[in-house]
């Protein structure tokens, strides 16, 4: 997954065709070249490239969605890892994330489950990104209960 080098504002962007596409005109990530390379990752969800959502089961009779924050968080973090690897030519992934903002639609119901998945990726808080977690009234789809935006650094020699 290569990133574009020809952005009009001079900051390359990552827009992989096989990943879930943005819902408006924004890339998956924007990259500040140099050392360290700085990767700004757009708010990322569990939406897959085919438009389906990890961690969402829809009742065909009622249309009601059943959301699993653990499955969604695991998928979000996996998607972010893919984006960071794409933006750094595979050099670094989730371990390079230094700052993250977590958006939950139900802090009371989902904070503990989200933390469980987060802590699987970062079992050591000394290696984990700085993090902020907030509750939001809604995310772009009712099939989502968590979205994460973040920034990663890749110190190139
Ligand atoms: C989904 C998302 N990142 C946005 O800004 O709509």
Automatic annotation (TrEMBL):
Pfam families for this protein: Ribonuc_L-PSP (PF01042)
Spell out the GO cellular component terms annotated for this protein, sorted alphabetically and separated by semicolons. Answer: cytosol; mitochondrion
Q: Which residue ranges does UniProt annotate as crossing the membrane?
A: none
Task: Please provide, alphabetically and separated by semicolons, the GO molecular function terms listed in this UniProt record.
Answer: deaminase activity
What is the official name of this protein in its record? Enamine deaminase RidA, house cleaning of reactive enamine intermediates, YjgF/YER057c/UK114 family
The organism is Apiospora kogelbergensis
